Automatic annotation (TrEMBL):
Keywords: ATP-binding, Coiled coil, Kinase, Membrane, Nucleotide-binding, Phosphoprotein, Transferase, Transmembrane, Transmembrane helix, Two-component regulatory system. Residues 152-181 form a coiled coil. InterPro entries: HATPase_C_sf, Sensor_HK_TwoCompSys, Sig_transdc_His_kin_sub3_dim/P. The keyword Transcription regulation does not apply. This is histidine kinase. PANTHER family: NITRATE/NITRITE SENSOR PROTEIN NARX-RELATED, NITRATE_NITRITE SENSOR PROTEIN NARQ. Its EC number is 2.7.13.3. The chain crosses the membrane at residues 17-35, 41-59, 66-89, 109-128, 133-151. One of its GO terms (molecular function) is phosphorelay sensor kinase activity.
Amino acid sequence: MGSVFKLSLTPRQEDRAIAAAGLLGGLLLIAFRAYDNSGAIPPWLVVLPLAATAALELFRRSHPVWTVSLGGLVFAGSVFAGSLIATVLMYTDLLYAAVLYGSPRMSRILHLTGIASTIVLSSLTFLYGTVSAALLVAVVCALVFLAPVWTADLLREHRDKAETERLRAEQTALLAELDRREAVVAERARMARELHDVVANHLSAIAIHATGAQSLARRQQRSQEDPLMAAMAVIRENSVQGLAEMRRMIGLLRAGAEGSYEAPKLDALDTLLAQAGAAGRETGLAFEAEEEGERGELSAPVELAAYRIVQESLTNALKHAAPGTVRLRLAFRPEEVEIVADNPYRPGEARVLPGARAGLVGMGERAGLLGGSFEAGPHDGRWRVRAVLPREPRAAEAS
């Protein structure tokens, strides 16, 4: 099986290659005296226009007007000095480059001069020669003066159309992206309104009623150690904290920027444990936590996921755990963070609460999005939740 090699040249290198090929090919033809009037014209006289045209090829892109103008004079001189096919071909390339890389005005000028030269030369040949000679001159002039100009003009037209289509496609993509962003912003605003009008209002009502219940209990001169007072304090504190976090989330949705939302961090675990301990005291639950290793700096997504997994694990323990001790362990390793929460397991039919198992699904999704792992279930007579998160988020692998 053969291999195909593609030689890629820069525009400058391409111009040099054209000049070198034209010069070497012309010298080879001159060596074999393959030019007009080779018996009467010495070779060095044919070399001069050849070398001049090859030198002009080096500037065919950068100075198309000058090269085609000087090239016309050199071409006229080469006709009288012994017409060489290599010089003629390089001159047609100068015409081609002048139209392709020059201004539209240059294209019009070369069209007019090419047509005029063809008409004049063929007419003179017809007046002082034969009809067949005039037709031959007309064909040759059209090939030399008009064919490269027409070819370059067509190529330039197609190139301009392609560029126009490319710009139009980019504009369409930009408009589609703007429409998508506008739709996202509108959806964010709708979600923010729903959260504010429904969830936030309910949390506000819970906080207000809990405060009212506390005031009523104080008027009844109930002791602060009264379980009712403790329960009302926990309800009010959790509802106020949930309302504050809900408002931050609403601000995030309305602003559409992460900077407007202050995500919770693992530094707040002590407060989370204290709240869980106060809420579970009446049901016989105690909470303890330990950390292993150096916490160090965690990326924001990993720290947020770890906090939410701990929060959801403690909430599930308050809902479903049997009386006993809920143990939380966080192990910080060089490459990963391990979170283990276990609590006394109540076998048999558990209480069916709204949103049952949604928390487990959410924790698994958080771990999976970061490229970590998650498992939950009975373990040695207790219910265990275990999550392993990488310190640096990575793409999750589909299993």
